[in-house]
Design a protein that fits this description.
mainly alpha; globular; about 50% helix
Length: about 210
C-alpha cells in the first residue's frame, strides 16, 4: 500500500505557460514545478533524482556518463529558473555560462494505448514498472497519477474519476501499481477545474 501523501496546490498554467526546454515536454516541466512546492528538503531531493532519471530515459546518449548527467542537472536547474532548492550532485552552470545547445528529444511514434493520456505518461508508467517499491516509486506514482488526471481533464473535464484513473494506472503497469482512491491523495477535482479555468480550457468547453 502506498503511503498517503499530503495534497499540495500547484499553481501554474498548463496550456499557455511557455516551456523552458520544450524538448522535454510539458510533463517534465510540471514535475519540476511540483518539486518546487515540496516543503521537505529530503522529499524534494528525492523527487529531483526521480525527475533526472525520467529525463535520462527520454534520451539516447553515448560517451561520458558524467558529462551526460552534468547536462541533465543543468537542464533541471534551468527548467526551475534556478529556484529548485536541493543539494545538486554537480556544479550547476547557468545557461549563459554553458552555452547550451537545444537538443531535440524525439517524440514516440508508436501507437499509444490511451491517447488522451499521451505518450509521455505511458513511458512514465513503464518506468514505474521497473522500479522497486519504496518512497521514490511512491513519489513518481503520485506525480504520474496527478498528470493522468490533468490529461483526462484536458480531454474531457466531465470524465474525471479517480477510481478510473487508478484502474488505468494499474492497466498501464500490468497490475504492479494497483491502488484504491483511499490509498493515494490525488489533486482534487476543484483544483483541476480551477486550473482549467485559469488556462481557458474550461471556458471553451462551456461555449459549446
Amino acid at each position: 500500500m502506498m503511503e498517503k501523501q499530503t495534497e499540495r496546490k500547484i499553481d501554474y498554467n498548463t496550456e499557455r505557460a511557455k516551456l523552458v526546454l520544450p524538448e522535454y515536454g510539458r510533463c517534465i516541466q510540471q514535475m519540476v514545478d511540483y518539486a518546487m512546492t515540496i516543503e521537505d528538503k529530503k522529499e524534494r531531493q528525492r523527487c529531483a533524482f526521480t525527475i533526472i532519471d525520467l529525463m535520462a530515459n527520454m534520451q539516447d546518449y553515448t560517451g561520458d556518463a558524467d558529462d551526460f548527467y552534468q547536462k541533465l542537472w543543468n537542464h533541471l536547474a534551468l527548467i526551475s529558473d534556478y529556484k529548485l532548492d536541493i543539494d545538486y550532485p554537480v556544479e550547476i552552470q547557468h545557461q549563459d555560462e554553458q552555452g547550451m545547445k537545444r537538443e531535440i528529444v524525439p517524440y514516440p511514434q508508436k501507437a499509444i494505448n490511451k491517447r488522451h493520456y499521451g505518450a509521455i505518461v505511458e513511458k512514465l508508467t513503464q518506468t514505474l514498472c521497473e522500479m522497486e517499491p519504496g518512497p521514490e516509486r511512491d513519489e513518481l506514482t503520485l506525480l504520474v497519477a496527478n498528470q493522468m488526471k490533468r490529461s483526462l481533464a484536458n480531454w474531457n473535464s466531465n470524465a474525471l474519476d479517480d477510481e478510473k484513473i487508478l484502474e488505468d494506472l494499474a492497466e498501464f503497469t500490468n497490475g504492479k501499481i494497483s491502488l484504491l482512491p483511499n490509498e493515494i491523495e490525488l489533486i482534487s477535482d476543484k483544483e483541476i477545474m480551477a486550473e482549467l479555468q485559469q488556462t481557458g480550457v474550461g471556458k471553451k468547453k462551456k461555449k459549446k
